[in-house]
TrEMBL record:
It comes from Amycolatopsis bullii. InterPro entries: Bact_solute-bd_prot1, SBP. This is Sugar ABC transporter substrate-binding protein. It comes from the Bacteria. Residues 1-21 form the signal peptide.
Length: 444
């Protein structure tokens, strides 16, 4: 109950208004679906009339930017508001919400759907959405993180990307490739506040520097030498060789800059590759190489993440909700996207069978293996130098992290913008984190 109240209090402060896509059908049953607004989800909305026509089920999408979507979906689900029949969540929420009894167990639905084949899911992605070996959300796409870099700019500068780069090497490359006169940043890194925005890439940097959010005794470690070194590195790299307006740049903004030729490197989610190689929107198709997430003290440093679909326990028509979810996450949907929009637009990192499709293998030859390698390497034993008491890699898998991570990200963003020093940002962040840590000490 303590965690539920904390979570509700945090999300209540963050909820903002909805921006819906409107009803796409007029069937006897209409589902309201809350999703995150990004290119892959927009493709699903565009294809949705085919589902409506085949089933008679109407669909109304509520599509929101990531920070707003998280807040709205969390508040609705935690309070059993019943506004949504299907919600887009991640491997951060799924196990916690399943344990709280907020989500429908999807195992019976999958078992009764011929050809759905849950065994086709990449094992680590499947496990991340499970609670007590039962899946409570089904993945739409999965990802780790890696580094995209402009091969043509590297060649022109006489640089070679190592097979396994370190962060110091990347910083050196960024300095040499930074071309402010021509509007090309050495690197693009997220600086936008949000526990799922700047905190995601930054925490992977902190992990490989040997930092922890909490030690095994739930002592906050945000002013430790390792965390401080990582934060200074990240902030200085962005301030010296990153994009203009970095303190408000997230995944979408960095994607636009990189695909329009305004950045020499971009460290972010592996799902970026489909956008980078999409000729309908990218100016740098075929010019990118993809390297593993850079390291310092660890074997690897990439994250593990999946956007997935779940059914709130209070949803009124669970059978119709599952029909939609099965349509959006089955093998036929992959084929539909590939043939309709091109194989670079296919949701990656979820189904093993996707990587056996000849057309996809050809389109994704530059990034398919780096994506799968990143997902396979993404576990705490390989990406963290020290043990921690919480699940998660780029997030701390506790309910309070939605509020804590957002607060810390605001401090990080302020440091990137030059409004305060890294030391002051971390001192304030430490106070936030220790309050959370103390609450866990009390129940040990």
């Amino acid at each position: 109950m303590r965690k539920l109240l904390t979570l509700f209090a945090a999300t209540s402060l963050l909820v903002t208004g909805c921006a819906g896509a409107g009803s796409l059908g007029t069937g006897s049953s209409t589902l309201v679906i809350a999703i995150v607004s990004n290119p892959q989800m927009k493709d699903a909305i565009a294809l949705a009339p085919e589902f409506e026509k085949a089933t008679g089920i109407g669909l109304k999408f509520v599509s929101l930017p990531e920070n707003q979507a998280r807040a709205k979906i969390t508040a609705s689900t935690a309070t059993e508001g019943g506004e949504f029949d299907v919600v887009m969540i991640s491997n951060y929420e799924a196990p916690q919400w399943a344990a709280n009894g907020w989500l429908e167990n999807l195992e019976p639905h999958m078992a009764s759907t011929p050809g759905y084949d849950e065994g086709d899911f990449i094992p680590s992605i499947k496990t991340s959405l499970s609670y007590r070996n039962q899946m409570y959300a089904v993945p739409f796409y999965g990802e780790s993180s890696f580094l995209a870099y402009r091969k043509d700019l590297f060649e022109k500068a006489g640089l070679t990307m190592p097979a396994k780069p370190t962060w110091q090497q990347i910083a050196d490359f960024a300095a040499k490739l930074d071309d402010k006169a021509n509007g090309v940043a050495g690197i693009c890194l997220r600086g936008k506040p949000g526990w799922g925005e700047s905190l995601a890439p930054f925490t992977t940097v902190a992990n490989t520097f040997g930092a922890q959010w909490f030690d095994q005794g739930w002592n906050a470690k945000l002013t430790s030498p390792e965390f401080t070194e990582a934060a200074k590195f990240y902030v200085n790299l962005i301030r010296e060789h990153g994009e203009v307006g970095a303190s408000s740049a997230g995944f979408s903004e960095c994607g636009t800059r990189y695909t329009q030729g305004n950045a020499a490197m971009w460290y972010d989610a592996t799902v970026m590759a489909g956008t980078n190689e999409d000729p309908s929107s990218s100016k740098i198709v075929g010019k990118s190489g993809y390297a593993p997430a850079p390291v310092v003290k660890t074997q690897a440093s990439g994250w593990l993440y999946t956007w997935a679909l779940g059914i709130p326990k209070v949803a009124k028509d669970k059978d119709a909700a599952w029909k939609f979810m099965a349509w959006m996450t089955d093998k036929a949907y992959v084929q539909k996207v590939g043939h309709t929009y091109g194989w670079n637009r296919v949701p990656p990192g979820v189904r093993q069978s996707t990587y056996a499709i000849p057309e996809y293998a050809d389109a994704a030859k530059a990034y398919a293996k780096p994506t799968l390698d990143g997902i396979a390497e993404a576990n705490q034993q390989k990406v963290m130098a020290n043990p921690v008491p919480y699940p998660g890699i780029q997030f701390v898998g506790i309910p309070e992290f939605q509020d804590l991570g957002t607060r810390v990200s605001q401090q990080l963003s302020a440091a990137i913008a030059g409004r305060e020093s890294v030391e002051d940002a971390l001192k304030q962040s430490q106070d936030y984190a220790q309050t959370v840590g103390d609450s866990y000490k009390a129940v040990q």
